[in-house]
Automatic annotation (TrEMBL):
Any Pfam family matching the protein: GST_N_3
Record bears the keyword Chloroplast: no
Classification of source organism: Eukaryota, Viridiplantae, Streptophyta, Embryophyta, Tracheophyta
InterPro entries in the cross-refs: Glutathione_S-Trfase_N (IPR004045), Omega/Tau-like (IPR045073), Thioredoxin-like_sf (IPR036249)
Catalytic activity: RX + glutathione = an S-substituted glutathione + a halide anion + H(+)
Subcellular location: Cytoplasm, Cytosol
Keyword field: Cytoplasm, Transferase
Molecular function GO labels: glutathione transferase activity
Annotated SUPFAM superfamilies: Thioredoxin-like (SSF52833)
Gene Ontology biological process terms, A to Z: glutathione metabolic process
Entry protein name: Glutathione S-transferase
Record carries keyword Cytoplasm: yes
Enzyme Commission number: 2.5.1.18
PANTHER family: GLUTATHIONE S-TRANSFERASE, GLUTATHIONE S-TRANSFERASE, GST, SUPERFAMILY, GST DOMAIN CONTAINING
Organism: Aegilops tauschii (Tausch's goatgrass)
Length: 76
């Protein structure tokens, strides 16, 4: 997909405890990750809607363009 980000990208929201859990786990594992803050109270981004079309929630970890949703799945 053109313009797709490579590496680890975390779609999150600063106040979400589930996203915070993922940021802590990534830091503990020493994995560098770009964090993209999402607007959850208004219009959700096309990236979030395309990455998690069922629940439309954060956190979502994009690994070379492939989405992993749900914070407990991200911790593994």
């Amino acid at each position: 997909m053109a313009g797709e980000k490579k590496g680890l990208v975390l779609l999150d929201f600063w106040v979400s405890p589930f996203a915070q859990r993922c940021r802590i786990a990534l830091a503990e594992k020493g994995l560098a990750c770009e964090s993209l803050e999402q607007e959850l109270l208004g219009d959700k981004s096309d990236l979030l809607l395309g990455s998690n079309p069922v629940h439309k929630k954060v956190p979502v970890l994009l690994h070379d363009g492939r989405a992993v949703c749900e914070s407990l799945a991200l911790l593994q």
